[in-house]
Amino acid sequence: MSAPIPATYSDIGKSASDLFGKDFPVGSFKLESKTTAPNGVSFTLTGLKDTKSGNINGELKSKYYYPKRGGTFTGSWTTSNILNGQVELENSLAKGLKLDLVANIQPASGNRNVRGGFTFKQPGLHTKVYLDALKGPTFQGDIVVGHEGFLIGSEGCYDVLEGKLTRYGVTAGYTHPEYNVALRVTNSLSAYTLLYYHRVSSEIEAGAKAHWDSQTNNPSVNLEFGAKYFLDRDAFIKGKVDSTGKVGIGYTQALRPGVKISLGGSIDTSRLNENAHRFGISINLES
Q1: What counts of helices (H) and strands (E) characterise the chain?
Q2: Among 2-11, 171-180, 187-196, 239-248, which stretch is predicted with the lowest mean pLDDT?
Q3: Which keywords are on file for this protein (predicted)?
Q4: What is the CB neighbour count within 10 angstroms for residue 94?
Q5: For residue 66, what are the β-bridge partners?
Q6: Which of 80, 131, 251, 282 lies in disulfide reach of 262, CB 3.0 to 4.6 Å?
């Protein structure tokens, strides 16, 4: 049996990252609606209102997949007047190879950017390389090697004009069907994050996160603990607490097929000022 294809560099420790980051719609009201036409074109409309500033941001995105050539075409337009376009070709030239071209433009200011690159994945290997043509230009890339559950990867960003690495990092992890652990060293080896995730049972997931940044004046390590409990197949609750006294709560309920609502809140137990507490709601519609 061949070795499995490892996760991408950014997805190492994803189970723990999702446990602490997803399904907590704090500080905003969000509505997302996705529909798919009979010809396979999907349309996604997203609107988000910040409860503090009152600003409203939205995006209209369309995506079409062309299976004969392994091509995916994506376009979007945001309320900030940014036009985005993306073309992806996967397995068309070689198995495991995906070509990617992304372009965006701001008509009001004339600012634009073009980025192109490729992703190559094979058993035991997953790598990405991109060229940011108009910013720098810069090369960005990462590589992950996996063997029997162990993962090790590295990333870097090289500025062609300055002739130096502007960012680099390394990550190592171990993945098991019931648990995984990852250590991420980012920001040019100055920030350290340890992630742990455990599927305790079919109903309970738990995790821990430790973070320390050597470039800050704070010598303390920020600790965070979280858990997810499935009430039934259509609903779950989540909670998290960190060493600074911030508590996060979340509740997600599938009202019917294609309709999901999430409620979230963040409470700062170290501050009695009610302005320190934030709440939010997210509604997802799909048909």
Answers
A1: 1, 19
A2: 2-11
A3: Ion transport, Membrane, Mitochondrion, Mitochondrion outer membrane, Porin, Transmembrane, Transmembrane beta strand, Transport
A4: 9
A5: 71
A6: 282
Measured distance between the N- and C-terminal CA atoms of the chain, rounded to whole angstroms: 39
The three-class DSSP label of residue 208 is strand
Residues in the chain: 287
> Left (φ > 0), alpha (ψ -120 to 50) or beta: where does 9 sit?
alpha
Residue 110: band (very low, low, confident or very high) from pLDDT cuts 50, 70, 90: confident
Cα gap 195→183, rounded to integer Å: 6
Question: What domains sit in the chain, N to C, each tagged with a CATH number?
Answer: 9-286 (2.40.160.10)
| 3-class DSSP state of 144 | strand
Residue with tokens 């455990």: 198
Nearest to 264 by CA among 16, 34, 22: 22
Give the phi and the psi of residue 14 in degrees, each rounded to 5: -65, -35
Burial of 87 (0-12, 13-18, 19+ CB in 10 A): middle
Single-letter amino acid code for the residue at 34: K
Confidence band (pLDDT; 50, 70, 90) for 273? Answer: low
CA distance 287 to 272: 43
Please tell me whether residue 218 adopts helix, strand or coil conformation: coil
269, two tokens = 């137990």
Measured CA to CA, the distance from residue 175 to residue 260 in angstroms comes to: 30
Cα–Cα distances in Å, from 8 out to 11, 56, 154, 188, 260?
Answer: 5, 33, 11, 19, 28
